[in-house]
Amino acid sequence: EVQLVESGEGLVQPGSSMKLSCVASGFTFSNYGMNWIRQAPKKGLEWIALIYYDSSSKYYADSVKGRFTISRDNSKNTLYLEMNSLRSEDTAMYYCAKYNNYGYFDYWGQGVMVTVSS
Amino acid sequence: DIVLTQSPALAVSLGQRATISCKTNQNVDYYGNSYMHWYQQKPGQQPKLLIYLASNLASGIPARFSGRGSGTDFTLTIDPVEADDTATYYCQQSRNLLTFGSGTKLEIK
Questions:
Q1: Among residues 12-71 of chain B, which lie with CB inside 8 Å of chain A?
Q2: How far apart are CA A52 and CA A75, in angstroms?
Q3: Mean pLDDT of successive 10-residue stretches along chain A, which has 118 residues
Q4: Do residues A2 and A108 lie in contact, with contact meaning Cβ atoms separated by under 8 Å?
Q5: Is the link from the previous residue into A14 a cis peptide, with omega within 30 of 0?
Q6: How far apart, in whole angstroms, are the C-alpha atoms of residue B50 and residue B37?
Q7: Strand, helix or coil for residue A30
Q8: Which residues in chain A have their CB less than 8 angstroms from residue B103's CB?
């Protein structure tokens, strides 16, 4: 059974940094691209970052480019999202999602809440 | 950027057919595939994949769900709707980067 478990939830002040993790199991993690997708309260889904299976390519939404960094450790079956210069508009539920090469997300984690507020 | 447009809400009677539309501002077809996918998100839960590549049913999804379309016009159909189908439905394209529609909230009457 595929499982994706995010961690790192919390409340931080504007301008600060935070790192999220997502531990994967039930599939060969090193064979698949992975993504972070977020959802602001009462809003829709926003894709924010993709990393290829071997970290050879990374893509970001314009809203987070230059502030967020996606990375992975295939030896630990873990995906990361390092978030810097956080803003109130980054407040959202953050989901990690397994990527299929046709560009869809076939499994999602349960999400972690990030709140940016003073 | 490819923009996906969905109607905000839809109300359908129990046992009837629900048709949810998604229109894009650019063609999402490429080499015989339509790079359009559909998700269901129930309140308080993570999204779940329903349909991939416009018309392919994801694993474990009942045949009441179906998808069709090509180019810039796509639909997700639920027939017949059940009470448990109350959710927000999102389309997503992967032809050019990755973007979601704004979601359609389905109410079952």
A1: 33, 35, 37, 39, 41, 46-49, 52-53, 58
A2: 15
A3: 96 97 98 98 97 97 98 98 98 97 96 97
A4: no
A5: no
A6: 8
A7: helix
A8: 44-45
